[in-house]
């Protein structure tokens, strides 16, 4: 039976009733009314009946006043209770999606810790949206908010709303009670496909995905907070491996995360101390057998003498928001080095995909060229196909700024992305770099040979220079020259080396000697 607790106004009424009853019983007990009658008799010349009438009326009015006052008080108390409830709700919910927030989740975890009797088992899903930043940047925050609300509704249609939490940004958590032995990967995939369903806002289609990680309570942690951290860790691994993946937590993921955290910390220090420097690999004109420039490749040598490859630290720099600083530092240094080369040599510099969605990139690059004094036509920027697809609108704006200033644009790792050939006609590329995976196998693989032949023909048709990457064998070089490939790059022609080791004329004469 639930206990009913009286409100304060009700207590007040009860108090007054008690006083009234006490006075009544006292007057009854001591016969006060008789004493009053006698008093009136004795003083019949006084206008006591009028005084008593006035007393009665004022008593009655007092009663009405008290009733009204009690009603007002009761309303005020109700209002305060409502306001308190609202404040509590706001503190524990996300006002945009109306889902419970991190604070609510923390309180549930704390409660679960104290309630040791519960035998319930849970799966915790951590969900992070793929492509949400693009929606916010390209379509504005209104669309971003609409997307978050729709995601919240879609999750709430799969799970009870009180079990879906928005932790902030595009991160959600779902607590799912396990009954029996549910297929949690399948459940994770249902989350992915619910979020991946097409969105259309004001006629604009929004393409969204989700990375999902999950962990089990109590198997993956003694306390719920730890299980949530583990499911986050699994989600992070899923995100790193691509879009729309579901990953269960395994303890080795923590080592990966710890390694990443360590690399990120070391990277910050390395950037601050300018320890990441460009190495240079020659780009060779295959018709004239002479060096026409160098590609700058970032090299990070740690204090222990270990080299961390760019494929490992560039993504960390991107995720940690360090890529702008790192690129500015490397480009400034590479441009300064390039000033000491003969004036016909070109500096080729790599941009990572994420940078092409930064509208100010073009301006920053041109400022560095201006500061150092390197003419724009001596610089070529390498971008990948995926970089252009990721954010096509901004990529075009950035590339146009640079091309108009005279900077060359090369399409790097051609053949490994997902873009269609229409990319080639949409952008004004000066160069296409055939990925080294084609060059590695084209001699033994007839089809690859035909692909390379076709790309070289395409380049000739479009007026675009073709570079072959990863030339390691003399026979590869010979075949590429026979096919009419314009430029070559690879260990055979020169490995990436620090500035002190690349006296351009020495490398050039070595290439001429070998031919
Ligand atoms: P990439 O731009 O395609 O660079 C060519 C990669 O192939 C370089 O690897 C180079 O050392 C390697 N390579 C060159 N010739 C040969 C060869 O004959 N055989 C083999 N097996 N490999 C060869 P690296 O230096 O490890 O760079 C890897 C990738 O990291 C680069 O691919 C580029 O996408 C990225 N990267 C490098 N430096 C930077 C940078 O400063 N900024 C950005 N955003 N990305 C960079
Ligand atoms: Mg490159
Ligand atoms: Mg490449």
UniProtKB/TrEMBL annotation:
Domain (EAL) ranges: 260-510
Protein name per UniProt: Diguanylate cyclase (GGDEF)-like protein
PANTHER family the UniProt entry points to: BIOFILM ARCHITECTURE MAINTENANCE PROTEIN MBAA (PTHR44757:SF2), DIGUANYLATE CYCLASE DGCP (PTHR44757)
Presence of the UniProt keyword Cytoplasm in the record: no
Transmembrane segments: 12-30, 50-70
Keywords recorded for this protein, A-Z: Membrane, Transmembrane, Transmembrane helix
Entry superkingdom: Bacteria
Keyword Transmembrane included in the entry's annotation: yes
PROSITE patterns documented for this protein: EAL (PS50883), GGDEF (PS50887)
Domain GGDEF: 120-251
Lineage of the species this protein comes from: Bacteria, Pseudomonadati, Pseudomonadota, Alphaproteobacteria, Hyphomicrobiales
One of the Pfam families matching this protein, by short name: GGDEF
